[in-house]
From TrEMBL:
Source taxonomy: Bacteria, Bacillati, Actinomycetota, Actinomycetes, Pseudonocardiales
Ranges that cross the membrane: none
Domain of life assignment: Bacteria
Keywords: Flavoprotein, FMN, Oxidoreductase
Domain Nitroreductase: start-end pairs: 13-177
Name of this chain's protein: 5,6-dimethylbenzimidazole synthase
InterPro entries the UniProt entry points to: BluB (IPR012825), Nitroreductase (IPR029479), Nitroreductase-like (IPR000415), Nitroreductase/BluB (IPR050627)
SUPFAM superfamilies, per the entry: FMN-dependent nitroreductase-like (SSF55469)
């Protein structure tokens, strides 16, 4: 397989994981490689506005898990009809199944005030953090690890739980660990929540 073929294969194989964690620990050397890849992401003005908080402590993960359950219930309460029924069967996190959580944050003050390229688009800082997350996600996939992004939380709760400074935003709570296998089809598609759409539906030429 060429490097290009391997990269496309990993991109296609990557899944959001909630149920397939084996519970085994993450090899520290593998973790270091994956974090190094995340840290090599492009960033607006080379601001590198991310931090990574590694959370293994079960008590901390349990506290977060309780919060996620409450937020899940809040979202479920907003649903009606068939969506409510489908959502009922959907698992939205593997916080206690995965041995490690990696919380990725955004620090808008890093490199500020003169962040080259952010003067007109404040969100460019957040985009940069998401690219670090994607690097982490893809290299973790290549290493045989599963990653599950959890966003059923209030930022203040995570900030308080992990002692994150007031001006720093938690962007993602990632559940990470070895997996038996990765599903071929996204969980939400299998559950009947939504399906992937064809590329041609989102492709525009010259103008929208
Ligand atoms: C910003 C973001 C937030 C997400 N939050 C959650 C979440 O809270 N719970 C969850 O189960 N999946 C979450 N996901 C995963 C998506 O549901 C998943 O990426 C999508 O269904 C496509 O599946 P795939 O990643 O396996 O291709 C999130 C993904 C992104 C990019």
């Amino acid at each position: 397989m060429t490097a290009a073929e391997f990269l496309y294969e990993v991109v296609g194989r990557r899944r959001d994981v909630r149920s397939e964690f084996t519970g085994e620990p993450v090899d520290p050397e593998v973790l270091r490689r994956v974090l190094t890849a995340a840290h090599q992401a492009p960033s607006v003005g080379l601001s590198q506005p991310w931090d990574f908080v590694l959370v293994e402590d079960e008590e901390t993960r349990r506290a977060f898990h309780g919060h996620v359950r409450a937020e899940r219930a809040r979202f479920a309460g907003s649903l009606t009809g068939p969506a409510a029924k489908v959502f009922d069967g959907i698992k939205v996190e593997g916080v206690l199944d995965a041995p490690l959580s990696i919380v990725v944050t955004y620090d808008p003050a890093r490199g500020a005030p003169a962040v080259l390229g952010r003067h007109a688009i404040a969100d460019a800082g957040l985009y940069s953090v998401c690219l670090a997350i994607q690097n982490l996600w893809l290299t973790a996939t290549a290493e045989g690890l599963g990653v599950g992004w959890v966003s059923f939380y209030r930022e203040e709760f995570v900030r308080e739980l992990l002692g994150i400074p007031e001006h720093v935003r938690p962007v993602a709570w990632l559940c990470v660990g070895p997996v038996e296998r990765l599903a071929d089809v996204p969980d939400l598609e299998r559950a009947g929540w939504r399906s992937r759409i064809a590329l041609d539906e989102v492709l525009h030429t010259e103008r929208w």
